[in-house]
Amino acid sequence: MIAAPPSEPAVALALGSGGARGLAHIVVLEAFDDLGIRPVAIAGTSIGAVVGAAYAAGIPAKDLRRHVLEQFRDPARVLSRLLEARVGKLTDLFVKGLANPVLLDPEKVLDIFWPESVPDRFEDLAIPFTAVATDYYGRCEVAFDSGPLVTAVAASMAVPGLARAVRGGGHWLIDGGVVNPLPFDRLRNRAPTVMAVDVAGGPSGDGDKPPEALDSMFASAQIMQSAIVAEKIAAGGPDILIRPDVEQYRILDFLKAKAIFRAADPVRDEVKRRLEALIAPKLSAGRKRRT
Fold first, then answer.
1. Fewer CB within 10 Å of terminal CB in the chain, N or C?
2. What pTM was estimated for this model as a whole?
3. SS3 state of residue 185
4. Integer angstrom CA distances of residue 225 from 87, 119, 142, 146, 193
């Protein structure tokens, strides 16, 4: 484990699932960079694993924001690249019954959209990192912190109905949000302070209209994840819980990246205040020792 310098508070960071809402994680990471603080460990689920692994690779948060905005700037280009990552065909609807003709290969998606500087293996990351996925047939949580990075993160983000399952460690793996949407419990022994960023939320709207089929499917998963997170927090939550105000965005609203960043930006100051509250006692103790 990489130890924090004496002048820094030892903080471990959990980044939760939530689709496009998880772009708000980058704003939280910008607050860490603003203060020159590096988490001693990071755990992520789904979009939290995607962002967390990229940051753990040593990429500054401001560069991650710039990369995201560039990747999702042109809708036509995004669609074209997603078509490249398909594993299904339109004929699957007729030949295989209810097979999804636009099912994505999550490993290809990462290859297309991830920064090129993200390494191939956990061991080459600058910050210790854990990705959480779900063993489909084992019906349980699986955590990865060594070995091939793309396989683990792709499994963590393999949302049922959107991405196909990933084969890893002898198991068929799907979205980690099914079992552990906010993996702060994976960090309890990694640092005296654990911060968790929850972006799961649920459906937005005034309730006048019935939900559409696709929205209903994804929002139902987010309702389930929010219920899991609530139970986990009731049993003993993280030391610091951050909830960016991004509930109005849907799981696939990546083309609204600029608006999501704008909505999440106010949380940057909140994170800095919470971190500075940790720093102050350490600085005070250091001054007392010197005198």
1. C
2. 0.89
3. helix
4. 27, 30, 17, 26, 23
